[in-house]
Amino acid sequence: MSPVKGDVDEEPDGLTGVELTRARSAELFAVFRDEGAPEASRDAARDALVHLHLPLVEHCARRFRNRGEPLEDLVQVGTIGLIKSVDRFDTDRGVEFSTYATPTIIGEIKRYFRDKGWAIRVPRRLQELRMQIGSASAELTQTLGRSPTPRELAEAIGCSVEEIVEGIESSNAYSTLSLDATDNGEDSTATMLDAIGIDDEGLEHVEIRESIKPLLDRLEPREKKILLLRFFKNMTQSQIAEEIGVSQMHVSRLLNRTLEQLRAAMEEESG
């Protein structure tokens, strides 16, 4: 009886279904790996191996049910991983084929979900770089106690800063959401636009304020007060003039002179 075309009608005493599958798989791999066997026999053995292990693909695919993709599609994708495993499997490794094939099948299904989730088609290298950035960022955040800079990410991954920036920007193409979508499951007139925050101008200028603090400390008390009233309390020159008891023109001259001093001091420090 041919090891490729023969079917087992009855299970021999003492052998389980798993043991029969292993024995059958070993027979088929022996034919498939036999370079001296006819090409037709080897192709038939390959097809039989794929068919024999389809239940393994279905088992792996069921782990990803209820994620928005039909089970039939997941089985088709997983079968691609199974075929790759059959072609690459080395019987001399002493590893069960199911053990070897399972990670490849699951990896193929996960890759399908990853590619399916991009609203705009992004090159595979950027998709993979995005995953590397996410992993490296989590590790560096734990180590450094803060978010890593693009340069630190580039050094950790082994690429350029420009590639890191490109990878981060590509994340904007992943799983975009309608601005009118809501996630509370209830009818509502509110839209996503209502939930989007605005730029915090105070936070935006924190770095600038911190950098000029030492320069402000060098000013005379009156000049410092004028600056604080003008730029931190948003008072007009007329209001400042009333506050400190001088004319608006004098406030304007003092303000211009103080700003020139600060500008010169900053240029000198940066130089």
Automatic annotation (TrEMBL):
What's the family?
A: Belongs to the sigma-70 factor family.
What keywords appear on the UniProt entry?
A: DNA-binding, Sigma factor, Sporulation, Transcription, Transcription regulation
Record carries keyword Transcription regulation: yes
Stored NCBIfam families? SigBFG, sigma70-ECF
**InterPro entries according to UniProt:** Cro/C1-type_HTH, RNA_pol_sigma-70_dom, RNA_pol_sigma-B/F/G, RNA_pol_sigma70, RNA_pol_sigma70_r2, RNA_pol_sigma70_r3, RNA_pol_sigma70_r4, RNA_pol_sigma_r2
Q: What is this protein called?
A: RNA polymerase sigma factor SigF
- Say which species the protein is native to: Nocardioides caricicola
Q: Where is the HTH cro/C1-type domain?
A: 233-256
